[in-house]
Amino acid sequence: MAAADHNTDRQQIKGVFSSQNVQKIGTGTTVRRTISKMYWMAEELNPENVEVQALNTSYIPAGPKSVVPMEEFLSKYSPEPEFYVSTVYPKMQELNTTIERGEKARQAGATYSAEFEFQNALGVDEDNVKANFGLGLTYMERGESNKANDIFNRLVKLDAAFQTEHKHLFNEFGINLRKTGMQDQAIDYYERALEMTSNDENLHYNIARAYFEKGVLDKCSAHLKKALELNEGHEEAAKFLEFLKKHHPEQVA
After folding, report:
1. Is 197 strand, coil or helix?
2. Closest C-alpha to 39, from 59, 21, 23, 58
3. In 3-state terms, what secondary structure has residue 52?
4. For residue 237, how far is the Cα from the chain centroid?
5. How far is 49 from 226, CA to CA, in rounded Å?
6. Spatial CB neighbours of 67, under 8 Å, sequence gap ≥ 6
7. Residue 87: other Cβ atoms inside 10 A
8. How far is the C-alpha of 88 from the C-alpha of 92, rounded, in Å?
9. What is the DSSP string of 12-37?
10. What angle do the packed helices 129-141 and 89-107 form, to 10 degrees?
11. How many C-beta neighbours within 10 Å does residue 217 have?
12. Cβ pair 196, 170 in contact under 8 A
């Protein structure tokens, strides 16, 4: 539930907490108070702030994260270690196991089994990044571009989809968008990723390939140059740019 903070005598905040919301219902002599309880996954960011994320109805951390000042957190949130151990942790483990089964099935070519597992996972947490990536890749592998496009539209709105921890799936998804003829989606996808991190040479290289396949060679060369600015040793980008200079010199400034 908590990791030791070596700089202080207390434990760093990390685990499940609850907050209570008191509401008044009715008026005059009929007024009564109701107390609703919400559960949160919380993690201390620094001595001044705590990041919280609500648990959904399946008791899985889901949805947007927000930052609460430490003083407010300590006054309004209560630790729930027993609830974490008895309910939240087993639910999270079950979800992870379902996603792992889906990924193993996808890699084995059992796409309908993979779809079943990923759909089950999304029934528990509809914004789960790994399950969405897995389902999108499954649809692309089956050639179901309309369904893959629905997943793309969901993923491109999720900031978490572009975080470092999901980079392997993120790259595979973008490459598959391009390879299955979804160049417009691939470009939108990579542009969204560039909003999150503009200093990744491979992102610029991949978006260059998508622009090349669309025939937009000026933007293709611009992204190749950016990739080489970030990493002059990027061999694929250098070879690609030389190819453009040789065969399409009018498009390379």
Report:
1. coil
2. 59
3. strand
4. 27
5. 36
6. 45, 49, 50, 51, 52
7. 15
8. 6
9. PPEEEEEEEEEEEESSGGG-EEEEEE
10. 20
11. 17
12. no
Residues 112-152: tens digit of each pLDDT: 999 999 999 999 999 999 999 999 999 999 999 999 999 99
The answer to whether 117 and 105 are in contact (CB under 8 A) is yes
Q: Is 42 in a helix, a strand, or coil?
A: strand
User: What sign does the dihedral 15-4-163-109 (CA atoms) show?
Assistant: negative
Q: Could you give the CA distance from residue 60 to residue 77 in angstroms, rounded to a whole number?
A: 18
Question: What DSSP string runs through 164-182?
Answer: GGGHHHHHHHHHHHHHTT-
Helical (H) or strand (E) element with 41: strand 32-46
Rounded Cα distance between 191 and 196, Å, is 9
What is the number of residues in the chain?
253
∠ CA 1-127-135 to the nearest 5 degrees? Answer: 120
Question: Nearest 5°: phi and psi at 84?
Answer: -60, -45
| 3-state DSSP assignment of residue 6 | coil
Backbone angles phi, psi at 3, to 5 degrees: -105, 140
Helix ranges (H only) for the chain are: 70-76, 81-83, 89-107, 111-124, 129-141, 145-155, 167-179, 183-196, 201-214, 217-230, 235-247
Whether the CB-CB separation of 53 and 63 falls below 8 Å is answered with yes
Predicted confidence (pLDDT) per residue in 11-69, tens digit: 899 999 999 987 777 676 777 777 889 999 999 999 999 999 999 999 999 988 999 99
**Which letter does DSSP use for residue 4 in this model?**
B
Yes or no: say if 114 and 138 are a contact pair by the CB < 8 Å rule: yes
pTM above 0.90, yes or no: no
Answer whether 103's CB lies under 8 Å from 116's CB: no
